[in-house]
Amino acid sequence: MNGCSWFACTLGLLTLAVLSLAVFSPRAHAQEAKAKRCVVVWSEGTAPRSVYPKDINTAIAEGLASLDGWEVVTASISDPDQGLPDALLERADVLIWWGHKKHDLVKDELVEKIVKRVKDEGMGFISLHSSHFAKPNKALMGTACSWGAYKGDSTTLKVTVKDPNHPIAKGVKDFTIAHSERYSEPYAVPEPQATPFEGVHSLKDGGTDPSRIGLCWQVGKGKFFYLQAGHETNPVYFDENVRLIMRNAVEWAAPETE
Ligand code: ZN
Fold it and tell me: Which residues pair with 183 in a beta bridge?
């Protein structure tokens, strides 16, 4: 080693390495953070622990973990600011909502902020099952959002891909899940712009009840997807078919990147 001892060279290289890390790492992290989109999965903590040990938000988030380029955040009504502080709501590209027993506890002020984020700023909104009566769901639809009937007399739900070319149906084949609660038509919502999924509930008495399962709307600048399946005593959000639908729905609902 001409003019440079092994020790001095090693020390020099190490110093360079440390300096490079110090200079380039924060920038790399900043770029990564900027490039990642953000989906927030919100639920109210009322699902039975025997079915959803860490509630529905975590089960859905686990199914979204393989989405490339997405940060997945769970939020609950029991968190500060009901799980959606301004900074998080501003950062969210898509908000997924599962509610049932605590609709009335959601603050109107928060609902207004969600509606603004969707309609004026293009945040995607995904509403699940009993969230048809959630305040943000009703505010965005502008209708009663009631189903014709709610009955716990079904055993399975066969989901049929009605529009295979729709982005939310990509790679999804017809499938059947255990589902003990049916919502019957008519569903009091505006005419959807697409209905990628329909379904048939099989009843305990041998009968059947068909209804729409997956519906899409454009609401102002934002995209809105409703999925009827997701009763809290059925492990629906662990099902691989449903998880694929949820991943597709997040990608579909996200605002266009500039
Ligand atoms: Zn239910």
Answer: 150
All residues at 6 or more sequence positions from 166 whose CB lies less than 8 Å from its CB, including other chains: 194, 196, 216
User: Which residue from 74, 92, 139, 85 is spatially nearest to 111, judged by alpha carbons?
Assistant: 139
3-state helix, strand, coil in the chain (%, to 5): 40, 25, 35
Instruction: Provide the CATH number for the domain formed by 35-145+212-253 in this structure.
Output: 3.40.50.880
The span from the CA of 182 to the CA of 196, in Å, is 18
pTM: 0.87
pLDDT in tens, 116-156: 999 999 999 999 999 999 999 999 999 999 999 999 999 99
Distance 148 CA to ligand 1 centre (A): 14
124 CA to centre of ligand 1 in angstroms: 23
Condensed to tens digits (0 to 9), the pLDDT of residues 216-240 reads 999 999 999 999 999 999 999 999 9
Q: How far apart are the C-alpha atoms of 49 and 139, rounded to whole Å?
A: 30
Cα 99 to ligand 1 centroid, rounded to whole Å: 10
Which token pair is 185?
């038509």
Distance CA 72, CA 126 (A): 14
Residues of the chain below pLDDT 50: 1-4, 9, 14, 16-19, 21-27
Cα gap 84→197, rounded to integer Å: 30
**CA of residue 46 to ligand 1 center, whole Å:** 11
| Lookup result for tokens 């997405």 | 70
